From TrEMBL:
Descriptive protein name: SusD/RagB family nutrient-binding outer membrane lipoprotein
Keyword Signal: yes
Source species taxonomy: Bacteria, Pseudomonadati, Bacteroidota, Bacteroidia, Bacteroidales
Organism whose genome encodes this protein: Candidatus Bacteroides avicola
Range of residues in the leader sequence: 1-19
Xref: Pfam families: SusD-like_2
Keywords assigned: Lipoprotein, Signal
Presence of keyword Lipoprotein: yes
PROSITE patterns: PROKAR_LIPOPROTEIN
Gene3D superfamilies, sorted: 1.25.40.390
Amino acid sequence: MKLYTIAAGLLAGSMLLSACTANFDDINTNPDGMTQVTPALLATNAIMGIVRPNSNKSFIQHMLTTKHMAWYELLEESTQYNNFGRDGFGIYPTLRNYTAMEELAVETYQDQKIVSAYKGLALFLKAYRLFNLTISVGDIPYENILMGAEGPEYLTVPYNTQKDVFRFLLRDLDQAHQYFVEADGASFAGDPVLDGNSAHWDRVCNTFELRVLSMLSMKEDDPDLNVKAKYAEVAGRDLLRSNDDNLQLEFSSKEGQLYPFNETLQSYKQYAMVSTTVVDVLKEYEDYRLFYYARPSDKRTEEGISADSWDAYVGTDPSDPFENIMAKANSRDFSILNDRYTDAGNPAGEPFITIGYAELCFNLAEAALRGWIQGDPSEYYKAGIEASMRFAADNTPDNANYHHNRQITDEVIAATLDNPKIQLTKDFDHDLYKIMEQKYLAGFMQIPYLTYYDYRRTGCPEFPINPESNRNVFAPDKIPMRWMYPQDEYDYNKANIEEAVQRQFGGSDDINQLMWIVKE
């Protein structure tokens, strides 16, 4: 998944403050002037660091883990067939940059509102990074993660329990929210995504905090966390209001800014088989997103079946043994990604969402179902479906190759929301499944790994598991529950990592162990 560690980052040094990446990151840099480390430059790098996805084949590999897709180029053991390996902790220089951004803002600006905006951004970014790390592996260093800045004698960073990590996450996100409130709408420089709008960042921060709290669904009775009350408190703040508020990266035809899976950047598009977990459900519900997500089977269109027919679309079971996947590929009776994601004539593809409105609606639906907030779960749920459908429609050119003459219109959305098959029924298990199923469909090609983490805590929607093909050898009837810690932690931080593994998993750092947030 990732390749570097905290310890390796420390050994590499802490002076990577202005390490720019190409293309998108040139936005705020004057090519005729000397590059100087400023809060704005660090903000640009930091924001791009969380919104910019991988490109080429790496862009879609998380879709194999979440079973949105199958792949027939090569045997993808680690993603499609669940042979989870080691995660990486290569975030120390990144976290140090956030601190440097805040420190430089204090030195640079007299306007305390701007300083507060940078402080809020720094804390939000730190929480975002460390949240993604802890839900991948379990316990992590949090409280003293920047000790390495004090010198090489502090390379061995202690681990916090995951419960404490979540307490720190919520504390830091609350403080980030407070800073954004103190910024009082002031704008900061260096933001290529939201134009430095501190009020907009507050909505993003609060929406993300609800994501964090949603991951604590199995800990709602923990008196130290008081998840229900905290969720209601955060839900009462300013949140994303529509797709227009999404924290997302938009692409274009400019060099270096193409959609990451555009065919001019890669030669893999033909291998991306849309899975049965997507195709079959969309067909069952007669949901027009099918015609935007997938391309019809070549075999069926050659047989005369129209591209606007539900029968033209064929999913692939990603748990099928690889030889069966190859046989299906040779038959040409399967659906690949819609051309709108890959076509050279559509270089912008669609925006890539990091934190979005549709996800928020589904999180609120789940919270209402659990009794954490007031309101009708069905209203939030349907708002999420509508947001997902409008996102697809609004980001797709009017080209028959991209919607196959099944355009999503207001009338189509209304019919989808009225479909008896998608309705909630006030039965908790049924309704939770429906909410998670629609959140899963909305996550197609978006927000890496989120639907896997939802599956891990809820069991919804059901992921295909085939013991014959599953590379999770010690539990062939299960999806792994975590990634292992990186080897470099054992090399450089041995005592602390071994203590954390012993405390959590009885000394066994393997992919089927349950971390604290998913233990009953």
